[in-house]
């Protein structure tokens, strides 16, 4: 039987999730600046790639917590 609740993994991953939250805030700032630029000039492929990368940075805390929770057995 596989349990989904792994509090130990969550507690161990919390400091890293807080660090990735800072990275997420940086990603949000890049996204806010890059989105209007990519709308104004859609021919700039590098800005579009940068915006997609910023979205992944925003999702970083969720990825970190899921990874840590998956590493700890029930």
UniProtKB/TrEMBL annotation:
Transmembrane feature ranges: 12-34
Keyword list, A-Z: Membrane, Transmembrane, Transmembrane helix
Protein's name in the database: (wild Malaysian banana) hypothetical protein
């Amino acid at each position: 039987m596989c349990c989904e609740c792994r509090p130990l993994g969550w507690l161990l991953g919390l400091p890293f999730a807080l660090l990735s939250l800072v990275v997420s805030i940086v990603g949000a700032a890049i996204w806010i600046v890059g989105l209007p630029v990519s709308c104004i000039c859609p021919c700039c492929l590098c800005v579009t790639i940068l915006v997609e990368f910023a979205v992944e940075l925003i999702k970083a805390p969720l990825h970190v917590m899921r990874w840590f929770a998956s590493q700890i057995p029930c």
